[in-house]
Amino acid sequence: MADEVLFDVNERVATITLNRPDKLNAIDAALGSQLIESLVEVRNNDDIRAAVITGAGRAFCAGADLTQGDGPAASAGPAGHFETSQRIRFDEFDAKKPLIAAINGHALGGGFEIALICDLRIGADNARARLGLPEITLGFFPLAGGPMRLPRAIPQAYANEMLFLGRRLDMQTALQWGLISRLVPPDELLPTAQEMAAQIAGYAPIAVRALKELTYAQTDMTLDQANRFGASLRWIVGQTADSKEGPRAFAEGRQPEFKGE
User: Fewer Cβ close by (within 10 Å): the C or N end of the chain?
Assistant: First the structure.
């Protein structure tokens, strides 16, 4: 069986490519499993400091492969809501390191939810590409993070249009609404995302991971709590060798060599 997710590492940056181009990279069991394996490798491998997720062909990911069944997976009764297995879902997984979505084409349903787990999202200037959560039009609603993450990413009014109307956005609207931070020509998309990831990978990795933790944790805190938590993380980072290397390199007029220590 061909790899449904391609995984490559270069200069501390992993590139994860969803690889079912003939199916618009729709998510089947194999792709979902291999995506999780890739994300686990990003988290566990200290030689990887950032990752890019993109799609092969003309789509990022068209969502769940509905030809594999009659609809969204059932929970197998009440027990399904309290699983004891070690199965990991991508929407529940914390890679601990920055993820960048390079959205090259359609990102719909579960595919859009994959983009939402990423810390940064950029898009190809592709007039045909659409982003959205169309599940409500099919008789159910998204449950791989969309209804929870989307209102935290953009204003509630915009999120509700996507959730309740199943509205699909073109790339220009996605940029205006703040779902992506920049649009680039299609042939520059992956190099741009990899350049962004390489820039992050060049920074002190402990400081980057602490910043990611603070950025997400503070959304459920008061401002005072967030300030105190941020001060605690900043103190921890200040005990690392990298926090001494940065100012030293600046004073000596050279590039710092951050080792994650």
Answer: N
- The DSSP secondary-structure symbol of 220 reads G
Bridge partners of 14, per DSSP, are: 9, 51
Q: Which of 4, 41, 135, 252 is catalytic?
A: 135
Helix 146-153 to helix 156-165 angle (10° resolution) is 150
Amino acid identity at 63: G
Q: What is the CA radius of gyration of the chain?
A: 19
Query: What is the reported pLDDT for 143?
Result: 82
**213 has catalytic annotation:** no
Count CB-CB contacts under 10 A for residue 119.
Answer: 17
Residue identified by tokens 């594999």 is 68
pLDDT at position 70: 46
Give the pair of three-digit tokens for residue 222. Answer: 């008061």
Alpha helices in 137-204 (DSSP H): 146-153, 156-165, 171-177, 186-201
- Residues with Cβ within 8 Å of 21's Cβ and at least 6 positions away in sequence, in order, are 55, 56, 57, 58, 59
Marked catalytic residue, from 41, 83, 92, 113? 113
- Is 59 in contact with 110 (CB distance < 8 Å)? no
pLDDT tens, position by position, 218-243: 988 999 999 999 999 999 999 999 99
Rounded-to-integer distance, Cα 109 and Cα 71, Å: 13
Positions in the chain whose pLDDT score sits under 70: 1-2, 68-86
pLDDT digits (tens, 9 = 90+) for 24-36: 999 998 999 999 9
Domains parsed from the chain with CATH numbers: 5-201 (3.90.226.10), 205-252 (1.10.12)
- Owner of token pair 């998309």: 189
92 classed as catalytic: no
Structural contact between residues 102 and 193, judged by C-beta atoms closer than 8 angstroms: yes
